[in-house]
Amino acid sequence: MSETEARERTTRSTDSRESGLKWLSGFVSLVGAWIFVSAFVYPSMSMTSYWNNLIIGAAIFLIAGYNYYRMSREMGNSVGSSSFVALLGLWMILTPFIMTASTAFWSDIISGIVVAIVAGYNAYAGRSERAGAPAGTA
Fold first, then answer.
1. Which residues contact 85 (CB under 8 A, 6 or more apart)?
2. What is the CA radius of gyration of the chain?
3. Of 74, 54, 60, 76, nearest to 119 (Cα)?
4. Does the pTM exceed 0.90?
């Protein structure tokens, strides 16, 4: 295999990996939108859970959406924003146990688990991409 073929193969695998990370960020953004909307779907939610879902859902939606935007413009994965979104997902898992239990108990837990796992993977994969990049390009 020539050096050019090896470079092309590496470029193709990196492009497909970045595309996958981009779509994962988009998916996390949609889960954040669900968390936001769930404040209106569950009518008997406590006021603290209501505001928590609005604020955290909007934050996840916007930050994961920002990461999707960055990757669609070929600026690379923002490891910091993915890590922060993963922490917000962990917060959503803990929220039903800390605040007054609401009708969105399982919705918050499952949404938090999905966000924490997918955004955590996104941060991990983005970190390994940056570690393998030539100096001055990441």
1. 28, 32, 60, 63, 64, 67, 115, 119, 122
2. 18
3. 60
4. no
